[in-house]
Amino acid sequence: MNTEYIHQLIKQGEGLTIEFKTAKHEIPKSVFETVCAFLNRIGGIILLGVSDDGEINGIEQKYVQKIKKELANALNNPQIINPPIYIQADEIEIDDKTILFLHVYESSQVHNTRGLIFDRNNEGDYNITLNTNLVANLYIRKQSTFTENKIYPYATVKELRTDIIQRVRQMALNRQPGHLWESMTDMELLRSVQLFQTDYSTGKEGLTLASILLFGRDDVIASVLPFHKTDAICRVQNLDRYDDRDDIRTNLIESYDRLMRFVENNFPEKFVLKDDIRISVRNLIFREIIANTLMHREYTNPFPAKLIITKNMVYTENANKSHGELQLQPGNFSPFPKNPVIARVFKEIGRADELGSGIRNIYEYFSYYSKQKPIIEEKDIFKCTVFLDDVLHKTEDVGKDVGKDVTKDVTKDVTKEKRKEIILNLIETKQEITSDTIAKNLNVTRRTILRDIEELKKELKIKRIGGRKDGYWKIQKNIKL
Prior knowledge:
Number of helices: 15
Strand content: 15-25%
CATH class of the largest domain: Alpha Beta
Distance between the termini: 39 Å
Mean pLDDT: 84
CATH architecture of the largest domain: 2-Layer Sandwich
Largest sheet: 7 strands, mixed
Structural class: alpha+beta
Number of strands: 21
Helix content: 25-40%
Low-confidence stretches: 391-402, 407-412
């Protein structure tokens, strides 16, 4: 972060989008009111360690990490900020003092802090909780700004696929036994993540665009968004046409599955040994790329989303509501939630982590495929490019902090119990994983894996939900991974 930019902000002074907070050795309680107000208005910047009059007091060095950790925990605590959010606090050295820089983006939802709703004006944060007109207007503005909140009052649960809702519920339970969704009806689940809302301009309530995209039948999705699709193309040998293609026009849960399957079929695999577990680098990278392509797309834009695999690269393109044109890197961006409701569902089921983790993970693992760094461009068309070198550089020279490359290793010395532990971890990563894929990961025969799976089933550690082709694995609640 450019210190000159910070000095300009301080010179500009506090206002609609800038707030200073003194924070010598603890988080000021009023910071959460400001975060809430910025989320509800048009976003803004908070400088922790700067007094109201613009004097840089700084944060005592021994408290910096403590404040950053407590801040992250508090912002993810629904009792403090609801709905919870993720904001990365950037540490900045300026005039020999340390301050924290928080960039808070406008949210698609109405947030409260400890039950109170705050809005923002040039004078600061103000409590509008008891002003029903202002609160109603706030909801109306959010619904018109973030298109995932668009309400379809005539759509009912009958237009959704209950099997996909049940599958998502089970995925959340597999990640977190006792998850709140377990005891909820389908409608209660939809309401809990704001997929069923009220239109405060008309008084009508109904399913949102996000709910239809996540769980809708294909014909319902085509009715509300006729141009909705993701075009997956592999063009390595046949450059004039394509080697493989999948025209995907379905819900986002199954879209993710098909895009991952397409990558697995057409992009070379690399493995890494991390914490004694053999994991797929390819899946780690593309889990992030595909999830972000689906979560942060502007769905009312008819531009068709694409995933293109070529000989030397893979890139994705999707429509975007840009907040400035720049190339994103782990150290120079603050994540902005384009569809935070959709993103929250993906996070609950383990297909995404906290906002911003995707870019960091892509940059952490790309070096197993190429010396060229990924290019992630924030424009009206969002584009992410990952390269594939013709001759990969030696993997022992890269990823030293990540793990050892074991792509060519043969796991002969892995014991049966260790192999079964790896199988459980692979199922935790991807419930729909096949025995063939597990065998490939472990470099053993399919028959060996089938025997291991049978033992895991007899030990009541896993069970199969659904059929061989359309089912998935469920890890029993008493298993800790």
